[in-house]
């Protein structure tokens, strides 16, 4: 499989049967630009088709796993219908493509884990977080509904009560707390994270591939059953990009201040 077309993602075999997908650059936080957002949706199709890939490892380079969406992209989709429709399709495809990828995906999360990267990180079959990772779903802080992956997987992983609390308040979770409530599979010290992910990937790559893939397929039917809930949440998120709350959310992020959202309309 030729992965050279990917520019914002670095995709390469690291060992026989194991492909690594790396977001960002060393020394920087990985921001989901328009191109990275598109690549993060598409890469799972190529990994699924790669005859040499058995397991994929998803990690972030540099200071964190993922820092969320580029504010310039967010502002563009608030005013440009074509851009909004394209990003909506990519957000949908990211979720369904990773669910339907027959190969096992292992994520290794450190530092901030936000946005599209967090979508892939939590939908991975085995999610590993550094104890000091900072997991945040910041949708309502931005002024849009928690679409993305939240409605399809958070209640299943950590229960409705915890899912509502963290998705409504945008409070951050440490990797240690995320593991305690069941949001991630495993946790470890940040210094051990890459080695831990590689160890898990090696064990899975050495296993019975048909049995492992069919087990993943069966278990992911729980997520497929929640597809209509996810589709609704994503539609409401993107409806929110046309409203006044997201404008204040973006402005407050740029100005590094608390948002002052306008009064809600009467529905």
Detailed description of the structure:
This protein is α/β, with parallel strands linked by helices and 267 residues long. It has one domain: 2-enoyl-CoA Hydratase, Chain A, domain 1. The chain has 13 helices and ten strands. The protein has a six-stranded mixed sheet with strand order 1-2-3-5-7-10, sandwiched between helices. Strands 4-6-8-9 form a four-stranded mixed sheet. Helix 3 (81-100) packs antiparallel against helix 12 (227-240). It is globular, with a radius of gyration of 18 Å.
Task: Give me a quick take on this structure.
The protein has 267 residues and is of the alpha/beta class.
Question: Could you give me the name of the CATH homologous superfamily?
Answer: 2-enoyl-CoA Hydratase, Chain A, domain 1
Strand order of the largest sheet: 1-2-3-5-7-10
- Our count of helices gives 13
Order of helices and strands: EEHEEHHEEHEEHHHEHEHHHHH
Per the principal axes of the C-alpha atoms, what is the gross shape?
globular
Judged by helices, strands and strand pairing, the structural class is alpha/beta
Largest sheet: number of strands, sense, barrel closure: 6 strands, mixed
Integer average pLDDT: 95
């Amino acid at each position: 499989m030729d992965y050279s077309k990917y520019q914002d993602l670095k995709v390469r075999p690291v060992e026989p049967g194991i492909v690594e997908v790396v977001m960002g650059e060393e020394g920087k936080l990985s921001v989901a630009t328009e191109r990275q957002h598109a690549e993060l949706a598409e890469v799972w199709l190529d990994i699924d088709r790669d005859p040499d890939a058995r397991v994929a490892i998803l990690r972030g380079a540099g200071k964190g796993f993922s820092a969320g969406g580029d504010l310039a992209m967010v502002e563009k989709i608030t005013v440009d219908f074509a851009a909004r429709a394209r990003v909506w399709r990519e957000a949908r495809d990211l979720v369904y493509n990773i669910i339907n990828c027959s190969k096992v995906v292992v994520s290794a999360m450190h530092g901030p884990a936000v946005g599209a990267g967090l979508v892939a990180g939590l939908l991975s079959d085995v999610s590993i977080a550094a104890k000091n990772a900072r997991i945040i779903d910041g949708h309502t802080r931005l002024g849009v509904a928690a679409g993305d992956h939240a409605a399809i997987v958070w209640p299943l992983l950590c229960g409705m009560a915890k899912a509502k609390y963290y998705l409504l308040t945008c409070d951050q979770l440490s990797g240690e707390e995320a593991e305690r409530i069941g949001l991630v599979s495993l946790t470890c010290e940040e210094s051990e994270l890459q080695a831990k992910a590689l160890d898990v990937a090696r064990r899975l790559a050495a296993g019975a591939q048909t049995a492992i893939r069919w087990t993943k397929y069966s278990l992911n039917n729980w997520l497929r059953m929640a597809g209509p809930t996810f589709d609704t949440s994503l539609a409401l998120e993107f409806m929110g990009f046309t409203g006044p709350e997201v404008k204040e959310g973006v402005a407050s992020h740029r100005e590094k201040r608390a948002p002052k959202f306008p009064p809600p309309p009467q529905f």
